[in-house]
Amino acid sequence: MLIGVPKEIKNNEYRVGLTAASVREVVAHGHDVLVESQAGSGINNTDSDYEAVGATISDTAAEVFEKADMIVKVKEPQAVERAMLRPGQILFTYLHLAPDPAQTKDLVESGAVCIAYETVTSPSGGLPLLAPMSEVAGRMSVQAGAHYLEKAQGGSGVLLGGVPGVAPGKVVIIGGGEVGRHAATMASGLGADVWVLDRSNEVLKRLWEQFGRSINTVYSMRDTLEEHVLSADLVVGAVLIAGAAAPKLVTAEMVKKMKPGSVLADVAIDQGGCFETSRPTTHADPTYVVDDVIHYCVANMPGAVPHTSTYALNNATLPFVITLAEKGYRQALAEDPHLLAGLNVHEGHVTCGEVAEALGYPYKSASEALGL
Questions:
Q1: Across-strand partners of 3?
Q2: Is residue 124 one of the residues assigned to a domain?
Q3: Annotated active-site positions, please?
Q4: Are residues 83 and 194 in the same domain?
Q5: Phi/psi of residue 295, each to 5°?
Q6: Same-domain pairing of 310 and 291
Q7: Does residue 183 sit within a domain?
Q8: The domain spanning residue 242 has which CATH number?
Q9: How far apart, in whole angstroms, are the C-alpha atoms of residue 237 and residue 107?
Q10: Do 309 and 294 reside in the same domain of the chain?
Q11: Residue 232 lies inside a defined structural domain of this protein
Q12: pLDDT in tens, the chain (372 residues)
């Protein structure tokens, strides 16, 4: 199979679908790889590095899309990239379709086979291709929040860790999954007063066992959510419903009542955001202010640390890339129900129930679409 790796073109996106080391593995399995020139520059993988492990370098994304049987990316294809997809071509990347009707429409009309990293499952019930970026984004949300709390950035001037004789800042994390757990790790490491809210008693129990009394765990209800959001210096939105649009848990009315100069960091923004006042931002223009509250809603947070992010992502995606190349997508999906869960769009049909429900498309199950 010929695998294509285009250069990412989303605003300030420096990750790449396959590292040179990953390409070496793919080539060792007998497959060809076509890499757009400078695709790996953000992680200091040069064209020469790719050529040295057997890849062919292309001067244009158009050639990569035209020739490749499977496109491996990081972020969702932009409009110009979607226009280059063709029927039957495999697209393997993050998609986040539920809050993105324009992308969904283009992918449906392309006839391509679109497999989303974020809905591939694992036997334990996790999301193994989303987890690495959830870990990075969770840690970055606290790092960014601490920065924007600085007075020079418009924040309230609170140091999250405090100092002797002065109380630490309060960090409220909504959702105790991968994002929330890693946000809690960073926040507690800084010495902040950390509160994690979740509706799963099992999740709260695991957090308690991991962190002990270095953080506080609270069952999330309207009363507890409002109480802790209104007293927070930094709120991290870490809510995930796989494949679906994120619920708007923090209302505009709650934002109005928050402390001036406090910060909202919405890690759920890829799925539409879990704050009513959220809208996607970029690393070029990462924040905006609503009712004196700073909103940090960058839709590709891990793109700011591409070296860490790309290698972490490739560790998770590479086995699936090789499986798809070795077996072809039909056999690979038929043999692995967890990879099958990643199929979001297949030759003109929406095959993810959450996406179909969110955007009003007819739903055809992945098994039905493949004739299984």
A1: 33, 70
A2: no
A3: 96, 270
A4: no
A5: -110, 120
A6: no
A7: yes
A8: 3.40.50.720
A9: 28
A10: no
A11: yes
A12: 999 999 999 999 999 999 999 999 999 999 999 999 999 999 999 999 999 999 999 999 999 999 999 999 999 999 999 999 999 999 999 999 999 999 999 999 999 999 999 999 999 889 999 999 999 999 999 999 999 999 999 999 999 999 999 999 999 999 999 999 999 999 999 999 999 999 999 999 999 999 999 999 999 999 999 999 999 999 999 998 877 888 999 999 999 999 999 999 999 998 899 999 999 999 999 999 999 999 999 999 999 999 999 999 999 999 999 999 999 999 999 999 999 999 999 999 999 999 999 999 999 999 999 998
Beta-bridge partners for 266: 237
